[in-house]
């Protein structure tokens, strides 16, 4: 039954969206929920069928697409992509389920289903071109969601989002073509298969150039400082569901791509750029946290907090050891859950008051205690409270990077301080104090539909914070294989040293308890 | 024994979660009773474990499940009940049970009754995790957990701006220290390969001295935050915004002592790095004095007690820093009892005075609040270190330690501090309970607290009286199984007696002075104009300094980062590139002016350009070729 | 010698004539000068031994093209003084001057090439017309036929554009109008 | 002084330049078309001359076809002018600027 | 005296003429039918044209087989040249024509389609382009070019409104100037080599070792100007937006494809030899031309207010993009050009057909051109399908995968990378990003703005079944191009490679 599960997973939502055109408007929500639920169930089946002990790709499917140019429809997953896929289907489900009253709900739901296809597609693709297809295609539904349902600046925001990321990915595309060209030079055949590219050992200077080319694509998507300015606009203007998906899944594409492309293909360049990227990450962490602190709009606080957290993820990725990379992959999921939930929570208030300004809020804790509780849990998760999902990722990321640099980690570690500052400040402004705004006095607490979305997120937040093993273990195994690949491929002695061989450590780790 | 361990650990959690279900609902007495009884269960289980340990049983060590495992890293949820942790467990469960019961009365009228108990029990759970964990990561979980609960409880009355501000301050300041702790953990992991205590302590002897120093420093930074050591001390006084039982439990008895516990726990490490230990001791002594001095003039009852807590924490660090870990732990225990008692008494006073905190607006309360008066006086006597109450045994022991270890400066400082302690404690007692009934001017109607609250306090009162006297011996026997069993005896009996009696005399003098001065206190305007008063009253201007030179610049810098840097530079660059292209288009698309002549001219111009380039190339070519 | 004199004479004449064409304000002068220039050019052809081309030049240009232009002039009523306000003549002269200068600079150097072979050589004793005919109907038969098509296209185009068919624009008429006009046409028929 | 190919080419160029001047200068479309005729004629001289100097007939062929093309262009060009004139009443290109930007 | 010449019919290889002849015969038969009986409905002529084009296509397919078996075929004293490029480009020309001709079956009546001359001229034009690509003789190229161009000018003017006359006149005049440039360039080539056939010119130049480099550069300069006009390279592009705006959308779309592919083939034949020869000047000039064309056209497209004008500038930019193939000059890049253009056919067909579908006869108040952006505001509300399709074509033009043009871009940029033109590859990529803005602008109008006209059929005023089918076809090909690309690429590469390019 698992033979074509990935293809089914990718194309089922799109197909369903096409069929959805004929569904009557009043029933579309049920249809959307049903489709998303099936998709989510499929992804759980995938998880069930995934063999955590196997190193390497699973459920691989291959189909020649443009064989003359070495492009194949090649999909497969490992522990790194598995959970982001589950996360994507999960968020689509709760996103559709919790959708408030919006105009043109049919368009919205169908767009979301298309978006789901592209999201899943990105994470299953093992061919660079297929990856690129989904990568770019994901911009389109998002553009529509921001542009059609967004705030007053929605058009500016959506165009900026689209063009900025588009520009970056085009540079990445050139890098991919170079990679294919080098592969052609080396082997005489064209190939865009990532797994084939892994086998290519490039000289360091080429690695550096290619790394830079890929970096533009990824960094803008992440977004890394100083390419982050599209994000506040996109989030600020997007409707709740748009922000949720954007933060939870789309941003992860960038960091995922670092793990999937940059690290295993350019180990030496990764070492070469480790410090600069770490510095950028630290700027992201501290600087954006400060900017978040200065925000007047709670959604912008969450938006900038995303950037800040993505800094930790990038840092963990460039720890170049199993601990750090596993942590960063885990943090991708964690941040997806937490920031997704936070955006949803902001949306809850926005639905009621149609404002996101902190100055409009205040004292909400007494009016909406459940809302405040859930918000508080997520704020604390975002601030990296142990036993919440975020902490595991942040801890491991920082722990991993500590191996590479003490001082940079200490700087990056300020994430837990600055993160607490802006989050708590915003939380205080919004929820504490007395109700000063009359309009807030009679707000309803979270309703059933919203709880349906939020409670699972809370549960996941705590569950994976307390017991991350079911997720962390497969991630860790896959990361181990990537790191050992990097270690083997590394040319320069520095890279050999910086990237430890996890296989060797495994031998000693046997007797750890 | 594992069952008891789990019971002791998880029954507070169960209580908390159940109470949380009712969190947003109006008061249900049930939650208070339930959490209290579950804590009672925890107390009983802890006692069983204590008995087990006391009766020479081996330490109980369980590994519940894996928490994080990746690469080389393996962190389980492991719990360890040994002599040290069981002491802490007892302290925690006893005080918290008392506080829970007490709170049923204290929070009687509060809207957030259920929420309060939920958080309070959650705190106990976190604290239990903190003390029971068998590894640093678990400790860190508890560490952050108590921080979280402390945040929630300080800011319990969230509608008060000052309360939520204080909560955030406490949280963030603790976070600063936690970063240090986290770095300490990283250091341990990358040098030892594990975060388990036993593995680490085994490896301590093999590690480089410089690394040990680093680890020691970073862990202590963590301890400084929780235990509010200078310069991270300001949050503790502000934390008094929380309900008084919270202050009793968290900010006196348990959480703030976590730092001391950490140092005690990590004693094999600090044994190896006496220099760091000496630094800790010095800082402790400084804080003891420093905090006591601020308590002298304060006019907020709870803050005075908070400063006294701070001061006593300083004492504990002196002991811990000098290697007298068991002494530190002993003082920790004793202090927990009498300080919690003191706070609860203060709570009674506040209750009856409608949350008035200024002792200058009280006076003569001993008539209406007899039992409270008795218990607070007992606690103050214990705090002042008068024989035979608990404080005498624990605190004077620290003085002895300093003396025996030949740290005479520390000794002197501590001795002076002991006097100050006695002074401010009885200043408070005198102001509240003695003298004329000033409260009448403010229209208060004092009344004694509920009887069950007083009964709830009574175990603490008892312990404050007897814990030093009765427990010292058996305690020593027990903890020295895991802690260095150094006995601190002043060898010359004459010196010993001079010291003991001298100290008692000095303290007695201080008490007498306090009574004399404040029994019929008027606010001394002249005194308040003095510089030294102002400095002390304003806490050495440290909060102002933080506000002015850290918070404000951070705020302003954030604003600049957003408005100037992010919007004006980073974003403007992006938009600038886009608008440059667009403007170029706008400027140049007029070359398409629709006039055919212009179009033809462009064509000719293009051709001419090509020709010119051709000629130029030819010339260049012939130059190169020729 | 004769050739030289003739060359310079006709070169001068053509340049002058064409200059008049380009610079005069009188459309009639321009047309006349153009025609004259064309005829002078045919002189070059004769001079160069391309008799057939010369004849064609005279027939096609001075015969057909000029007639067409003359007709056009009358049609457009441009026989009078033409008011042209050309903008920035400097650019015009600069560009043309540059173009001429650049090419002339290059052209004054003779071509050095040993590889030029006459593929369709001018045969001694064969009349130019004959020779041209020979090449035209062998090698250049296809272009010739295509040229015929081209002339046909031009003819059709001319008829379509200049004829009645363009008088009424269906593009600009609403559907109802078209129907109406159709009906009235049918009635008229 | 013998007349060489260069002479003809230079003449051709000069005439071409004159044509260019006309093309760029004229705003009366009919007279602009005159200038395009000059361009083609200028080229033809060159072709004929090269043909002569190489003793090769291809040049003459080219010139022949250029003449045919020029003639066709005149027909179409005049046709266009006529419809334009009928519609707008003038053949000045300065009136022809409804599309720009 | 001249000796009689004996030429065997076989050596003439008459078959090489067959495709063009079919088109010409088609045109003539349309004219004859009109002579016999006028006033027949346009659908008849459309079908006749399609039939003849089908025959034309059949002949071309025959060539494909022949070429695969025997390689390049010469005919008529080597004037006719049937190689891979010729066949490929003719295929594109004929297929594109077949796709565009049915667009005249719009529901509203427009002037040109009611006259059979339109279809006759259309077929003549096709034959002209076919001649142009199926030879390397500069004379035949010239004649073919002029045949096609003159027909095209007329077709534009036949739309019969003042803007179309203006467009035709502008196009014509500039075309005449370009013809002058072409003739002059040919003359210089002739002067240099004594030949007007491209391969002989190349051989002669190579044999000389480019000793008359200055002459070569003059010739190339003029040729570049002439083809720059046809290919609308900056600054010879100025006619493009005006002509597109003036003509009907259907014809504008056609113009954006067919004349250009014809010109590309000639340019490929003419310039690639020279680029390969190592004349750096040409490389530099072409490089600059390509970059400026791509970028400048994009920048101007940004500020357009009319969709058709925007598409005009965009097609200039695309032409610049494709021109890069000639600069790179590898088999991969040449194949890339054909691939790009084949995919461009369908996308542009769709885009222009969409414009054509919503062309109304009388402009709304305040509307200054046929297809201002505002007209499309909120299209998704009134006509979701139309909006989605239009968006699809815009995305394809922008190069969003997996839609048609992306594969072309991918392959082209890939060929730039393999050809060692890294910077060029980057510029090409970044230009796609700039272009994204104006394509997006239309999407923004369609999907994110409030509709201005509530009338539902307003946007489909000109639609008819055949138009819809054509759009559907274009959409299907654009979406599922990924399946198409591999066979197409293999076919093209084989054709191009075997022609020696």
As an assembly, this protein is heteropentamer
Mean pLDDT of chain B: 88
Gyration radius of chain C, rounded: 24 Å
What strand order characterises the main sheet of chain B? 1-2
**Uncertain parts of chain B:** none
Number of helices of chain B: 24
- Structural class label of chain C: mainly alpha
Integer-rounded radius of gyration of chain B: 32 Å
Describe the largest sheet of chain C: none
- Head-to-tail CA distance between termini of chain C: 70 Å
Helical fraction of chain B equals over 70%
Largest sheet of chain B: 2 strands, antiparallel
Q: N- to C-terminal separation of chain B?
A: 101 Å
Can you write the helix and strand succession of chain B as a string? HHEEHHHHHHHHHHHHHHHHHHHHHH
General form of chain C: extended
Molecular shape of chain B: elongated
Total DSSP E strands of chain B: 2
Elements of chain C, N to C (H/E) = HHHHHHH
How would you describe this protein?
- The complex is a heteropentamer of chains A (513), B (626), C (189), D (101) and E (501).
- Chain A has 513 residues and is mainly α.
- Chain A contains 24 helices and two strands.
- Chain A has a domain at 273-466.
- Helix content of chain B is 75%, strand content 3%.
- Chain C has helices at 2-23, 27-47, 51-76, 89-107, 128-137, 141-162, 175-188.
- In chain C, helix 1 runs antiparallel to helix 2 and helix 2 runs antiparallel to helix 3.
- The longest helix of chain C has 26 residues, at 51-76.
- Chain C is built from seven helices and no strands.
- Chain C has 189 residues and is an all-alpha fold.
- In chain C, 71% of the residues lie in helices and 0% in strands.
- The chains are: A mainly alpha (513), B mainly alpha (626), C mainly alpha (189), D mainly alpha (101), E mainly alpha (501).
- Chains in contact: A-B, A-E, B-C, B-D, B-E, C-D, C-E, D-E.
């Amino acid at each position: 039954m698992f033979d074509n599960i990935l293809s089914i997973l990718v194309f089922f939502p799109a197909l369903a969206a096409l069929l959805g055109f004929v569904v009557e408007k009043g029933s579309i929500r049920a249809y959307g929920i049903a489709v998303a639920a099936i998709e989510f169930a499929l992804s759980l089946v995938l998880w069930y069928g995934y063999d955590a002990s196997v190193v390497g790709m699973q459920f691989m499917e291959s189909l020649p697409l443009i064989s003359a140019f070495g492009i194949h429809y090649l999909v497969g997953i490992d522990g790194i992509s598995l959970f982001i896929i589950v996360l994507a289907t999960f968020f689509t489900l709760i996103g559709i389920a919790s959708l408030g009253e919006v105009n043109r709900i049919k368009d919205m739901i169908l767009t979301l289903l298309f978006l789901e296809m592209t999201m899943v597609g990105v994470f299953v693709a093992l061919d660079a071109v297929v990856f690129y297809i989904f990568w770019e295609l994901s911009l389109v539904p998002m553009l529509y969601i921001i542009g059609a349902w967004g705030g007053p600046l929605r058009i500016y925001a959506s165009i900026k989002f689209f063009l900025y990321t588009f520009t970056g990915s085009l540079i990445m595309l050139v890098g991919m073509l170079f990679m294919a060209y080098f592969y052609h030079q080396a082997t005489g055949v064209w190939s865009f298969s990532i797994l084939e590219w892994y086998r290519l050992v490039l000289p360091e200077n080429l690695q550096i150039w290619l790394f830079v080319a890929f970096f533009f694509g990824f960094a803008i998507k992440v977004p890394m400082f100083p390419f982050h300015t599209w994000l506040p606009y996109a989030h600020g203007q997007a409707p709740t569901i748009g922000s949720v998906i954007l933060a939870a899944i789309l941003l992860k594409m960038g960091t995922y791509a670092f793990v999937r492309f940059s690290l295993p293909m350019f180990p030496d360049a990764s070492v070469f750029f480790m410090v600069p990227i770490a510095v950028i990450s630290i700027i992201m962490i501290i600087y954006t946290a400060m900017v978040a602190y200065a925000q007047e709009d709670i959604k912008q606080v969450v938006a900038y907090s995303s950037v800040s957290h993505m800094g930790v993820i990038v840092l963990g990725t460039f720890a170049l050891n199993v601990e750090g990379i596993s942590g960063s992959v885990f943090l991708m999921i964690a941040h997806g859950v937490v920031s997704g939930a936070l955006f949803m929570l902001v949306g809850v208030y926005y639905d009621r008051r149609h404002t996101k300004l902190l100055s409009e809020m205040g004292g909400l804790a007494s009016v909406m205690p459940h809302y405040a509780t859930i918000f508080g849990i997520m704020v604390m998760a975002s601030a990296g409270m142990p036993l919440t999902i975020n902490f595991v990722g942040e801890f491991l990321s920082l722990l991993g990077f500590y191996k590479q640099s003490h001082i940079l980690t200490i700087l990056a570690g300020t994430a837990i301080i600055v993160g607490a500052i802006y989050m708590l400040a915003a939380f205080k402004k919004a929820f504490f104090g007395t109700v000063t705004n009359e309009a807030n006095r009679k707000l309803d607490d979270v309703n059933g539909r919203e709880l349906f979305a939020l409670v699972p997120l809370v549960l996941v937040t705590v569950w994976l914070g307390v017991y991350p093993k079911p997720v962390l273990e497969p991630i860790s195994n896959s990361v181990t294989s990537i790191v050992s690949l990097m270690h083997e491929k590394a040319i320069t002695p520095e890279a050999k040293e910086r990237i430890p061989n996890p296989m060797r450590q495994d031998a000693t780790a046997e007797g750890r308890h | 024994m594992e069952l008891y361990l789990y019971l002791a650990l998880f029954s507070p959690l169960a209580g908390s979660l159940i109470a949380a279900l009712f969190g947003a609902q109006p008061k249900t007495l049930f939650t208070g009773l339930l959490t209290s009884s579950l804590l009672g269960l925890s107390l009983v289980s802890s006692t069983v474990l204590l008995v087990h340990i006391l009766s020479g049983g081996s330490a109980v060590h369980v590994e519940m499940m894996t928490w994080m495992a990746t690469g080389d890293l393996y962190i389980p949820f492991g719990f360890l009940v040994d002599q040290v942790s069981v002491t802490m467990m007892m302290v925690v469960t006893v005080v918290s049970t008392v506080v829970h019961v007490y709170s049923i009365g204290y929070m009687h009228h509060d809207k957030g009754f259920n929420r309060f108990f939920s958080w309070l029990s959650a705190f106990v759970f976190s604290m239990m995790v903190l003390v029971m964990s068998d590894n640093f990561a678990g400790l860190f979980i508890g560490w952050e957990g108590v921080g979280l609960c402390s945040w929630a409880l300080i800011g319990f009355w969230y509608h008060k701006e000052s309360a939520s501000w204080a909560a955030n301050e406490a949280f963030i300041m603790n976070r600063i220290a936690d970063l240090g702790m986290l770095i300490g953990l990283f250091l341990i992991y990358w040098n030892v390969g594990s975060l388990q205590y036993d593995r680490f302590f085994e490896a301590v002897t093999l590690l480089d001295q410089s690394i040990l120093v680093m680890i020691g420093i970073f862990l202590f930074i963590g301890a400084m935050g929780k235990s509010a050591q200078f310069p991270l001390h300001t949050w503790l006084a502000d934390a008094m915004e929380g309900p008084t039982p919270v202050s009793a439990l968290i900010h006196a008895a348990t959480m703030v002592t976590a730092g001391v516990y950490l140092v005690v726990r990590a004693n094999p490490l600090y044994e190896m790095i006496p220099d760091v230990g000496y630094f800790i001791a010095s800082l402790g002594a400084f804080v003891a004095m420093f905090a006591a001095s601020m308590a002298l003039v304060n006019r907020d009852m709870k803050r005075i007690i908070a400063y006294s807590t701070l001061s006593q924490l300083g004492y504990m660090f002196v002991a811990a820093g000098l290697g007298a870990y068991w002494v530190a732990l002993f003082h920790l225990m004793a202090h927990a009892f009498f300080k919690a008692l003191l706070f609860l008494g203060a709570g009674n006073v506040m209750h009856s005075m409608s949350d008035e905190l200024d002792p200058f607006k009280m006076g003569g309360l001993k008539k209406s609040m007899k039992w409270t008066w008795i218990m607070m006086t007992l606690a103050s006597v214990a705090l002042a270190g008068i024989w035979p109450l608990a404080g005498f045994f624990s605190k004077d022991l620290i003085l002895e330690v300093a003396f025996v270890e030949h740290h005479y400066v520390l000794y002197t400082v501590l001795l002076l501090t002991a006097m100050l302690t006695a002074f401010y404690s009885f200043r408070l007692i005198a102001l509240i309970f003695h003298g004329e009934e000033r409260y009448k001017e403010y229209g208060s109607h004092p009344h004694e607290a509920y009887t069950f609250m007083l009964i709830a306090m009574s175990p603490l009162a008892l312990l404050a009286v007897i814990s030093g006297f009765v427990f010292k011996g058996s305690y020593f026997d027990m903890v020295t199984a895991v802690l260095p069993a150094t006995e601190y005896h002043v060898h010359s009996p004459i010196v010993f007696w001079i010291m003991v009696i001298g100290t008692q005399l000095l303290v007695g003098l201080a008490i007498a002075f306090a009574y004399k001065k404040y029994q019929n206190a008027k606010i001394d305007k002249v005194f308040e104009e003095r510089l030294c008063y102002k400095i002390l009253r304003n806490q050495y201007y440290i909060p102002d300094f933080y506000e002015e030179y850290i918070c404000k610049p951070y705020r302003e810098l954030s604003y600049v980062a957003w408005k100037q840097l992010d919007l004006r530079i980073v974003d403007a660059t992006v938009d600038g590139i886009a608008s440059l292209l667009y403007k170029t288009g706008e400027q140049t698309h007029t070359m398409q002016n629709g006039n055919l002549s212009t179009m033809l001219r462009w064509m000719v111009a293009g051709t001419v350009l090509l020709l010119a380039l051709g000629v130029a190339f030819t010339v260049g070519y012939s130059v190169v070729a020729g | 010698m004769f050739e030289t004199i003739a060359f310079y004479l006709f070169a001068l004449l053509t340049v002058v004539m064409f200059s008049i064409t380009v610079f005069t304000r009188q459309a009639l002068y321009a047309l006349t000068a153009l025609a004259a220039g064309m005829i002078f050019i045919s002189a070059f052809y004769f001079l160069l031994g391309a008799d057939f081309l010369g004849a064609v030049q005279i027939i096609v240009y001075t015969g057909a093209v000029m007639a067409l232009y003359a007709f056009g002039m009358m049609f457009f009523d441009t026989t009078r003084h033409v008011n042209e306000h050309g903008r920035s003549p400097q650019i015009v002269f600069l560009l043309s001057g540059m173009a001429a200068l650049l090419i002339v600079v290059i052209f004054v150097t003779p071509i050095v090439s040993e590889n030029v072979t006459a593929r369709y050589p001018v045969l001694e004793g064969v009349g130019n017309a004959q020779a041209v005919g020979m090449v035209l109907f062998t090698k250049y038969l296809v272009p010739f036929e295509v040229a015929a098509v081209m002339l046909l296209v031009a003819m059709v185009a001319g008829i379509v554009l200049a004829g009645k068919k363009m008088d009424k624009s269906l593009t600009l008429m609403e559907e109802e109008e078209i129907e109406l006009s159709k009906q009235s046409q049918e009635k008229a028929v | 002084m013998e007349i060489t190919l260069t002479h003809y080419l230079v003449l051709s160029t000069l005439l071409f330049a004159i044509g260019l001047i006309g093309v760029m200068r004229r705003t009366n479309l009919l007279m602009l078309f005159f200038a395009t005729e000059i361009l083609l004629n200028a080229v033809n001289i060159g072709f004929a001359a090269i043909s002569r100097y190489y003793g090769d007939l291809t040049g003459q062929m080219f010139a022949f076809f250029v003449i045919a093309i020029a003639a066709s262009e005149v027909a179409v060009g005049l046709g266009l002018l006529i419809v334009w004139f009928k519609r707008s009443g003038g053949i000045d290109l300065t009136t022809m600027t409804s599309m720009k930007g | 005296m001249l000796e009689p010449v004996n030429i065997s019919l076989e050596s003439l290889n008459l078959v090489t003429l067959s495709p063009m002849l079919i088109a010409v015969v088609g045109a003539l038969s349309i004219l004859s039918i009109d002579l016999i009986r006028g006033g027949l409905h346009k659908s008849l002529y459309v079908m006749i044209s399609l039939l003849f084009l089908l025959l034309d296509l059949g002949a071309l397919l025959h060539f494909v087989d022949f070429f695969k078996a025997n390689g390049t075929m010469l005919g008529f004293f080597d004037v006719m040249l049937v190689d891979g490029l010729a066949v490929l480009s003719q295929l594109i020309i004929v297929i594109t024509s077949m796709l565009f001709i049915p667009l005249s079956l719009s529901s509203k009546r427009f002037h040109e389609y009611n006259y059979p001359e339109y279809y006759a001229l259309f077929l003549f034009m096709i034959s002209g382009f076919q001649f142009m690509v199926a030879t390397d003789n500069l004379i035949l190229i010239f004649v073919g070019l002029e045949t096609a161009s003159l027909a095209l000018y007329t077709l534009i003017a036949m739309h019969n409104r003042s803007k179309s006359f203006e467009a035709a006149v502008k196009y014509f005049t500039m075309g005449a100037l370009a013809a002058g440039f072409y003739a002059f360039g040919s003359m210089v080539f002739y002067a240099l080599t004594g030949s007007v056939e491209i391969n002989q010119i190349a051989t002669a130049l190579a044999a000389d070792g480019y000793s008359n480099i200055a002459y070569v550069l003059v010739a190339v300069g003029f040729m570049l100007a002439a083809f720059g006009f046809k290919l609308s390279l900056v600054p010879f592009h100025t006619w493009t937006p005006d002509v597109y705006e003036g003509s009907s959308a259907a014809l504008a779309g056609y113009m954006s494809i067919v004349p250009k592919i014809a010109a590309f083939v000639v340019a490929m034949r003419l310039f690639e030899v020279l680029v390969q020869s190592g004349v750096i000047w040409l490389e530099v000039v072409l490089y600059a031309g390509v970059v400026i064309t791509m970028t400048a056209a994009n920048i101007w497209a940004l500020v357009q207010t009319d969709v058709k004008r925007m598409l005009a500038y965009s097609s200039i930019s695309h032409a610049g993009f494709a021109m890069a193939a000639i600069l790179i000059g590898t088999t991969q890049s040449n194949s890339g050009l054909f691939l790009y253009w084949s995919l461009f056919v369908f996308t542009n067909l769709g885009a222009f057909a969409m414009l054509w579908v919503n062309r109304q006869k009388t402009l709304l108040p305040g509307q200054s051109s046929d297809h201002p952006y505002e007209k499309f505001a909120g299209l998704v509300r009134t006509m979701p399908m139309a909006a989605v399709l239009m968006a699809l074509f815009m995305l394809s033009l922008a190069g969003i995968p997996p839609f048609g043009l992306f594969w072309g871009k991918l392959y082209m940029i890939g060929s730039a990378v393999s050809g060692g033109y890294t910077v060029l590859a980057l510029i090409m990529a970044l230009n796609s990003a700039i272009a994204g803005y104006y394509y997006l602008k239309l999407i923004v109008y369609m999907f994110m703005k409030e509709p201005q006209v509530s009338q539902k059929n307003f946007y489909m005023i000109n639609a008819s079944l055949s138009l819809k089918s054509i759009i559907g076809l274009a959409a299907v090909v654009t979406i599922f191009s990924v399946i198409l690309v591999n066979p197409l690429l293999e076919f093209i590469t084989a054709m191009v490679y075997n022609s020696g390019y």
